[in-house]
Automatic annotation (TrEMBL):
It is a multi-pass membrane protein. PANTHER family: AMINO ACID TRANSPORTER-RELATED, ARGININE_AGMATINE ANTIPORTER. This is Amino acid transport protein. Keywords: Cell membrane, Membrane, Transmembrane, Transmembrane helix. GO terms for molecular function: transmembrane transporter activity. Pfam families: AA_permease_2 (PF13520). Gene3D superfamilies: Amino acid/polyamine transporter I (1.20.1740.10). One of its GO terms (cellular component) is plasma membrane. It comes from the Bacteria. It comes from Lacticaseibacillus brantae DSM 23927. InterPro entries: AA/rel_permease1, APC_superfamily.
Length: 444
């Protein structure tokens, strides 16, 4: 079997750091603080800390695998090498679905953000009309290739960091200490509220999955990967907790249930123009992510089909602009179904669930390859099996927070994917085509 190739491009720590921060911070911090406060009060800050600590165990498992297997693919690639073609195929399907759910969530987040200014969006018919219209525009744009992706990424990164920095930097001077008491709201359902809040905050960190791939391209990954990952997680955690604390300090009990809490807090400080400025920054951030994901998600499916032979070759077809047309159409149809089936909070749960289905095999792969001499030593997890076991426990806790509907849909997708896998295998045998991924991705 072929061993890992040496990394060709080395990235500096600052580059990885800023890419990581941009990848994690999304719409959640702009829309969820009010709901978190309503459930857990001031204790919502502690929920953020708890998630940051627990998610580190999974991130370190990703770092361990990324320092050993540096090919593009992350979870599905680790799963393929550890557990075979079928397992890699299933995780590949859910990797594609994660992008689809993310796109639906960002569109929903954008419309949720606009609801206070345009109350007509509260009507289901109007909401779906605008959501599907925006989806159509995003898909149509991508038929002409990746022209907007770089611009959207840069715009999104600048907008989200600038909006948060402005809010925290100015808002901290208007915090009222009395707003931080009591620590938790008077409720008989704190345990259930914690579980719901934990999932919502976990969603806010869900962009971490690409970080180890980027970090693994650094010089001396065994030393620098954990530094990059921990610094990014600490920075994002501090930004999240600072934004939540400032929002609580400015709005107090008025924060509970706010649809656009950050903008509302800024409005209290500076009036309508403050609200409008923050809303523009939020819109640029969310739309930028939507444009980027609308491009990258079909590319994932196309790559799995044409480069790695894990999906039917039909999904790898491209037009004269290089756009994966079939994958774009399927992505658009599935995203439309998601937009019609639930709201922003439903889509958050779907995102965390599809992420969960990638975390578990990655953690298990890190256990399987822990002492495998066929792979480079890479970044060793300290404490032996302690971190992977904690990662599995974190994943198990996530599983307990999902509704039976989401779990049932996940099982149905798994079964349908297995049928698809079998049908595609028969077709490949008929036309004498192999399913094995490219040699560069098959390390053991």
């Amino acid at each position: 079997m072929q061993k890992q190739a040496q990394t060709q491009t080395e990235m500096r720590l600052p580059t990885v750091f800023f890419l990581g921060v941009n990848g994690i911070i999304g719409s959640g911090i702009f829309l969820l603080p009010g709901h978190l406060y309503q459930s857990m009060g001031v204790g919502s800050i502690l929920v953020m800390l708890a998630v940051a600590v627990s998610i580190l165990t999974i991130v370190l498992c990703y770092a361990n695998m990324a320092s050993k297997i540096t090919g593009n693919g992350a979870a599905w690639l680790y799963t393929y090498n550890a557990f075979g073609r079928f397992a890699g195929f299933e995780v590949g399907i859910f990797t594609w679905l994660l992008g689809i759910v993310t796109l639906a969530a960002e569109i929903s987040a954008f419309l949720t953000m606009l609801t206070p200014s345009f109350p007509a969006l509260k009507q289901q018919g109007m909401y779906l009309t605008v959501a599907l219209g925006l989806l159509f525009v995003l898909i149509a744009i991508n038929f002409f290739g990746p022209r907007l992706t770089t611009l959207a990424d840069n715009l999104s990164a600048g907008a989200k960091v600038a909006a948060l920095a402005l809010f925290i930097g100015i808002g901290v001077f208007f915090v009222h200490g009395a707003n931080f008491s009591p620590l938790f709201p008077a409720s008989n359902h704190l345990a259930n509220n914690f579980s719901a809040s934990y999932n919502q905050v976990f969603y806010m960190f869900s962009g971490f999955a690409f970080l180890p791939i980027t970090a693994a391209r650094m010089k001396n990954p065994a030393k620098n990967v954990p530094i990059a990952l921990i610094s990014v997680l600490v920075t994002c955690s501090l930004l999240y907790m600072a934004a939540q604390a400032v929002a609580i300090g400015v709005l107090g009990s008025h924060l509970a249930g706010q649809t656009v809490p950050i903008a509302t807090a800024f409005k209290q400080l500076f009036g309508q123009w403050g609200y409008d400025v923050m809303l523009v920054g939020m819109a640029a951030s969310i739309l930028g992510v939507a444009v980027s994901v609308s491009y990258s998600t079909p590319v994932v499916a196309s790559s799995l089909a044409s480069e790695h032979n894990l999906l039917p070759q039909l999904l790898g077809k491209t037009n004269r602009f290089g756009a994966p047309t079939v994958a774009l159409i399927f992505t658009g149809i599935l995203c439309a179904l998601l937009l019609m089936s639930g709201d922003y909070f439903f889509l958050i749960s779907c995102m965390v669930f599809t992420s969960f289905l990638q975390y578990v095999p990655t953690v298990l792969a890190s256990i399987k390859f822990r002492k495998d001499t066929r792979l480079p030593k890479g970044f060793d997890l300290p404490g032996g099996l302690t971190i992977p076991i904690l990662g599995l426990l974190t994943s198990a806790y996530l599983l307990t927070n999902f509704t039976w509907l989401i779990v049932g849909v996940g099982i149905l997708i798994f079964i349908l994917a297995a049928i698809w896998y079998r049908y595609d295998d028969l077709d490949r045998q008929k036309h004498q085509r192999k399913r094995d991924v490219a040699d560069k991705d098959h390390w053991v």
